[in-house]
Amino acid sequence: MIVRYHLLAERLRADLQMLERVVERAESALQRATQQIQDQDYFLAAAALDLHGFYTGIERLLELIADELDARRPAGSYWHRELLTQMSLAISGVRPVVIASATHVALMDYLEFRHVVRNVYTFNLRSGRVIELVRGLRPTFDLVQHDLLALAAFLDELGSSDSAEET
Fold first, then answer.
1. What's the CATH code of the domain at 112?
2. Under a CB-based contact definition with an 8 Å cutoff, are residues 26 and 134 in contact?
3. Which residues on adjacent β-strands are paired with residue 95?
């Protein structure tokens, strides 16, 4: 049995539960923004922060996978994009594809928005874009969750295989 594979699988599952809460918060902020028009800017700013947290949480998991399984994390000025690309590739003898191509495409919007949130004052965010991203958040989360739970199942099987030795 290889404990580190089981630990990584459990980390994926635990963080997916936290990401579910972030999705719920963003959806709630959008709902309140539409109900309380006078405070719409505040609720959309909260939703933008949750969108940022959503992508950052996913990226943190992908970095962990790169460190633990791939033994290599991308570097350089485009490492965020390269990490997504790396996770969309299978590594023979190491791991299957982590994120499907549809997940990769969906996550690019959130990666780009994360950059905007970090570099623009929240009162300058385009409300239409925040609304669009929050509306797409649940389907994107469902894709990510499906992919990462499949990886967690692979890790559990790998860690429990009869030929596996403790490392």
1. 1.20.120
2. yes
3. 91
Spell out, as residue ranges, where the chain has pLDDT lower than 50.
Answer: 164, 167
In 36-126, alpha helices (H): 40-65, 79-87, 101-119
The structural domain count of the chain equals 1
What SS3 class is residue 95? strand
Q: What is the pLDDT of residues 8-56, one digit of tens each?
A: 999 999 999 999 999 999 999 999 999 998 888 899 999 999 999 999 9
* Within a domain: 165: no
Residue 137: inside a domain: yes
Host domain of residue 119 = 3-158
- Structure tokens, 73: 């994390």
Structure tokens at 86: 């790396």
